[in-house]
Amino acid sequence: MNTIDLAAVALICGVLAWSLARYAPKAVPASNLAAQGVLGVVTGLLVRNVSFASLGSDWVAVVAVALGTLVISIAGGALMGMHRDVSPLTGALSLVAGGSSGVVSIAKELGGDDRVVAAVQYLRVALITAAMPVVVTVVYSGTAAGGSQADEQGSLPLIFGLPLIAVIVAVGAAAGRVTRLPGGGLLGPMAITIALEFSGLTTGLTVPVLLVQAGALLIVWQTVLLFNRESLRAIRRILPSAFALIMVLNVAAAGFGVMLAHVAGLSQLDGYLATSPGGIYAVLGTAVGSHSNVAFIMAAQVIRVVLMLFAAPLIAKVFLRFTPRSAEVAAAPASRELVLAA
């Protein structure tokens, strides 16, 4: 990326922040909304080059597996919510098995503690990604090494792509506000991007890696600013439980992989990679390196990620409705006045 591109990215970040500061809900900082929107566009673009036709009649089984993973995630989160340092809602969001950065970015807006959600979500991705090479090599006798090269030929020039991203983010955020969509700053742009992808109107659109990394870093940084001694102690106390529940989730997903492989006529390795509850890019690299059924695996993974992100607000509504307000307050950590500091 040359100096002009870097300047363009910096300019678009400023435009996004200004636009969202003026038109987006005031309850969420403009910078955070801009970061949410960028992540929403990136997630929406995952549907590109994914051949859902490769699922054939097995799409029902793939969706069923994704729903099963969601149910196990919610159940695990509910168990975590029994800990005195975690509310049931925060526990549920912490173990949502997909789109970790996206879930973290909207956790506070949905009523959860984004500090706990961030700690557990990134632990989930780290553990599952770290375990993947071992499982692939030892259990399935496959090749864990590998990677994919993004085909950037025919990509839309940044001078056109960045304004389009800005429009998608701004319109998505505004639509989320009008429709009162929880997490609209993320889900609005993601839904618009998916619709545009299916209609073929975003051909060649890519989000610069620098912009994606800046958005993710901003979300992490805003969350880090909220940590204090009390919250760090609370997270330390729940880590053993979180670790155990993440391992259970991974094993359960592997079990789903066995069933999916049997139903869809895949290899056991393909089934495992298709149902892995985290690390979508690690899954892609492993699938390519092990000469697996990349088309099927990526279609299944994209369905999982999109489903989890759209389900997060619904999960929040259910937990807020059926959890006594006193329980949420009791589990909530100390003052969160620093949330606007970033």
Please tell me about this protein's structure:
This protein has 2 domains: 1-20 and 30-48 and 153-205, no CATH class; 53-150 and 213-333, no CATH class. Residues 23-28 and 329-342 have low confidence and may be disordered. The two termini are 27 Å apart. 72% of the residues lie in helices and 0% in strands. The protein has helices at 3-23, 30-44, 59-80, 88-94, 100-110, 114-139, 158-178, 184-199, 209-224, 229-264, 268-275, 280-289, 294-322, 325-331.
Please provide a brief summary of the model.
With 342 residues, the chain is mainly α. It is 72% helix and 0% strand. The chain folds into two domains: 92 residues, no CATH class; 219 residues, no CATH class.
